[in-house]
Amino acid sequence: SHPKTALYSYPQASWNQVDEAFAAAEVEQIRWGATLWQERAALLLQIANGLRKNRKRLLQVLMADTGKTLKEADSEISEAIDFATYYRESLIQLHRLPTIVWKPKGTVLVASPWNFACSIAAGGILAALAAGNCVLFKPAPEAILVGWELAKIFWQSGVSKTVLQFLACEDQPTGSRLVQDPRLKMAALTGETKTAKLFLQLHPGLDLIAETGGKNIMLVSALADRDLAIKELIHSAFDYAGQKCSACSLAILEEEIYHDPSFLQQLKDAAESLHTGSQWIPGTSVPPLIRPPGKALLLGLTELEEGETWLLRPRCDSTNPHLWSPGIKLGVRPGSFTFQTELFGPVLGIVEAKNFSQALSMINQTAYGLTAGLQSLDKREQQQWREQVQAGNGYINRGTTGAIVQRQPFGGWKESRFGIGYKAGGPNYLIPFLQAQEMDLPQERQLPTEKVLQWAEAVDKASLFQHVKEKHFFQTALESYAFFWEHYFSKGNDPSSIPGQENLLLYRPIPFVCVRAQANEPLYWLLTWMGAALTSQTPIRISVAPSPKVEKLVSLSFPQQCERFLESDEEFQKRLASMGRCRVRLFTKPNSTLQNQLAELGCDTILGPPLAHGRLELLSLLQEQVFSFDYQRYGNLGLYERKKE
């Protein structure tokens, strides 16, 4: 709000200092990684209390440093506290798996964004610490003060300054050298899609979990509650000036709504009524941008393409280039600049659709898949949207922002997610920060489905096992997969059970997973993993290095969508290039050529022999999806609540 005034100054770390940080982390990792998990769980509670005690200071720096309003800053601090208490409970749950021993991965980089400089940074650090990893914390350059105050709270709560190190450095060249360093074992990033791709290219083989861009769309059906739709659209598009990865950037209206002058006038009036100004003024809804608009956002705020008109033209404050009032464009067309580009500012594009199905198809056209919203009172439309929408977080009759830990774990699909990361604030988020070691075969078992049994019988008849132990592992794994599919992954889970709001965490099959079985690997690994794919009903593509046993496998009938290729490494790499970015399962480390290719394509790679434990291995074939449905109407829970009971 005072762009000509310097709020603070800070030193940038040199490469020598980053090098010292790596050396210190490597030494400290031996001690920290050996701590009992119960000690780390207790430490997370201390950190939660530290965040509570320092709420006032965090409110001050979030407002001053990142321009958040008091309301937005307060909810962000609450989310950071929730991460601490929830990840403590997650750590306890993971250590209740009796046959699994968990080990830390090593030094982890947490590269956090400026728009949620407290909560997202805290979430990444807490997960890494809970797993027993040392952390290099690099906050966004726009939010150094928030990061510094957050780090101090961690240190004051009992975290060693060598376990958690604070690094403010330039992205180029120091930051790039940091990412390239072989001492870095993992990175947790929230940022642009191009940044995630750069990380992988700088460090092929890096364990990366990244939440990236979004182009979030709300579909407004002709059968919507129109007053509610306007309220949620305005809130989703313009709170914090649209500077949220989950902010609604487009609204697709069925033609009846699009040509309703009352709806459009009401939408315009609602946006116009929002107070644009300093975050320090109570009642401000649209605070200043973090910086003057960049090229893409400025184009979105000032230019119209063919067929577009302004329902509400945005205005820049004459005294502050950071401060823009809301803008709403009519006539936005699929494929246009406004339709495709993540603008990250207070501008909403309105698209017309002839019918509900066309509108839903438009949503799925975008490369991103972070959040999506639906405004409709029709149960048939709600069901169709749930079954077909391609987004990690879906919201029905509510806004697209404001995910709450446990209630709505957060994370996207497609270009909105890189690496094998699971939803932040969800039951699986800690898993990528840990290495699972299977000490015994799982105890939870159930008879597999008929199709899986057919597959097991065909494998047995083909005599593909070399030892009795291999066959026993295979059979036990299939039974564990069946148990966890039946009792966990196939069921929608709503742990919060909030009256008036249903929050379902679902597991969906990936469009396809490509597995490469390399030469000299035990064949039972591939056979077992194929059983997991059959259990989860995930389409797969199998590439195997030629051998007599493998040729026998390729000839076996597999009762599900499955493409099989008998090919050399070079032939597989050509095939991979034609497939583009996808999820790839490898059982042993690839050669440098393949590793570089996987990084260049941005593939989500899972490395390591298959686990017999279904709670863990089935995750390699699935992606998480959350639906949050406000079924109450103006406080009335109605028949839906009685049906739930």
Which key terms come to mind for this protein?
24 strands; 41% helix; alpha/beta; 23 helices; 6-stranded mixed β-sheet; 645 residues
Any chance you could write out the topology, listing elements then pairs?
Layout: H1 15-33, H2 37-53, H3 55-66, H4 70-94, E1 100-104, E2 108-111, H5 119-130, E3 135-138, H6 144-156, E4 164-166, H7 171-180, E5 186-190, H8 193-202, E6 207-211, E7 216-220, H9 226-238, E8 248-254, H10 255-258, H11 261-272, H12 295-302, E9 309-312, E10 327-330, H13 337-340, E11 347-353, H14 356-363, E12 368-369, E13 371-375, H15 379-388, E14 393-396, E15 413-414, E16 417-418, E17 434-438, H16 450-461, H17 468-489, E18 501-509, E19 513-517, H18 523-536, E20 540-544, H19 548-555, E21 562-566, H20 569-579, E22 583-586, H21 592-601, E23 604-607, H22 614-617, E24 622-630, H23 638-644
Parallel strand pairs: 2-3, 2-5, 3-4, 5-6, 7-8, 7-13, 8-11, 10-11, 13-14, 14-24, 19-20, 19-22, 20-21, 22-23
Antiparallel strand pairs: 1-17, 6-16, 9-10, 12-15, 18-24
